[in-house]
Amino acid sequence: MPKVQQYSPNQVSTNVSKKPRASSVSADSFGVVSNAPAKALADLSNMAAERQQKVDQTSAEEALVSFERDKNDIFFNKDTGYYNTAGKTAYDGSAGVSESLKKLKEKYSESLSSDAAKQSFGRVADQHLMRSDVDIQRHASKNLKAWEVGTINSQVENTLENSINYWNDPKKLREQSHLGRMAVMDAARIEGVSPET
């Protein structure tokens, strides 16, 4: 009678090959180009982003140059420049000049097409506005003092003229003399001159 072979579960074994496998060989060996299109696309995207960044920066710088030119005209124009004003005119004009500079910033900011260029321009323009506001306030303050001293000096001249007109009225002459003396002392106080002087 024929004998039937019986297999037990641990009777079969597997041999693992020690030779190189396909996964350890580069894909280029088989004529397959792996990441070249993705890399080229990423490079192209990076170049476009860099170009846009340069365009934004150059646009912001161009707007800033124009802004500064117009700002300098507001300050230094020989006919209408703020720094060519004095006294009451300089003091009264300070708020208008600050407002003009803010409008000028808005004008050039709106001329820019991208948000990145607007932000870059806005940062630098805001620094210009802060420094300009300090200079405007300094000029206005000095000219307020000049206006006040000029008015007091006019009052001194006025009392001298009135004293001449009232030379024959001792009461009005004393009054004008007193007003003139007080005006001189007020002017000296404002200018920092000692009372003895």
Note down, in words, how this protein is organized.
It is a single chain. This protein has 197 residues and is an all-alpha fold. It is 70% helix and 0% strand. The protein has four helices and no strands. The protein has helices at 36-76, 87-110, 115-165, 170-191. Helix 1 (36-76) packs parallel to helix 3 (115-165). The longest helix has 51 residues, at 115-165. It is rod-shaped. The mean pLDDT is 83.
What is the element string, with H for helices and E for strands? HHHH
Give the structural class: mainly alpha
What's the mean pLDDT score?
83
Q: Quick one: overall form?
A: rod-shaped
Number of helices: 4
Specify the biggest β-sheet: none
User: Quaternary state, please?
Assistant: single chain
Between the first and last Cα atoms, what is the distance in angstroms?
148 Å
What gyration radius follows from the Cα positions, in whole Å?
Answer: 43 Å
Question: Low-confidence parts lasting 5 or more residues at pLDDT below 50?
Answer: none
Number of strands: 0
Short structural summary:
By secondary structure, the chain is an all-alpha fold. 70% of the residues lie in helices and 0% in strands.
